Each structure stands twice: as C-alpha cells, then as structure tokens.
Amino acid sequence: MEMGILVILVDLQCCRCDAKIRKVLGCLEEEYCIEKVEYDVKNNRVIVRGKFDAGCLRNKICCKAGGKVVKDIKTPSFYYYPPPPCGGYKFACEENSDVCAIM
Fold first, then answer.
1. Where is the signal peptide (predicted)?
2. Which of 38, 90, 101, 103 could be bridged to 47 by S-S, CB 3.0 to 4.6 A?
3. For residue 52, what are the domain limits?
4. CA 65, CA 76: separation in Å to the nearest integer?
C-alpha cells in the first residue's frame, strides 16, 4: 500500500476540538496503520502520515469528529520526506528526466 498523507485543518486553540481530534486519531491509529501524527498548533493543522487509503481515512475522520471540529481535510499530491538526522536530503529522479523530487 502507498504512503498516505492528510492535512486536517482544526482549531487547535479550542481545547474541546483539540481533545476530540486527538481522541479520534488515537482510536483510528492502529486500524488504519497511521505511522505519524504531527500537531501544528501555530497553523491550526494536523498532519497524518502512514500506509492508509487517504480517501477512506478522510471519510472516517469526518464521521467520527464531526463537521464542527474538522474545518477541512486536504490530500496533497506529493509526499515530503523530512531530512535524515545526519543532514542532507534524498532525491528521487527519473532517468532521462529534468524533474527531481525531494525524498
């Protein structure tokens, strides 16, 4: 299965919204093979990464969290791999192509 990524827009300043999204993602973590959840309080977004079907997980989160908690869920068309701890980046380039992707 491919790596999936979801960017969930939630008001993390609201203590009830924050608690609800944490509870929902905690319950779905094992079922949907969620590997990493990042909470960006400054930008009010939650980034979910793992080996899951993004559309299926998006629908499940909307049903469980409700429309008042989740403002929007985006599925980016690319996956950014953070740099390794030793520094440097990995690049994925196709042969005979001018396009490279940071891995």
1. none
2. 38
3. 4-74
4. 21
CA distance 69 to 16: 8
Q: Decide: helix, strand or coil at residue 82.
A: coil
pLDDT at 62 over 80: yes
Q: Write phi, then psi, for 62 (nearest 5 degrees).
A: -60, -40
Domain count, the chain: 1
pTM over 0.85: no
Residue 85 lies in a domain: no
**CA-only gyration radius of the chain, Å:** 15
C-beta separation of 57 from 46 below 8 A: no
Query: Could you tell me if residue 20 is inside a domain?
Result: yes
Among residues 82, 2, 92, 7, the alpha carbon closest in space to that of 50 is found at: 2
pLDDT of the residue at 3: 80
CATH, residue 9: 3.30.70.100
Matching residue, tokens 């980046």: 89
Q: Report the alpha-carbon distance of residue 31 to residue 98 in Å, rounded.
A: 39
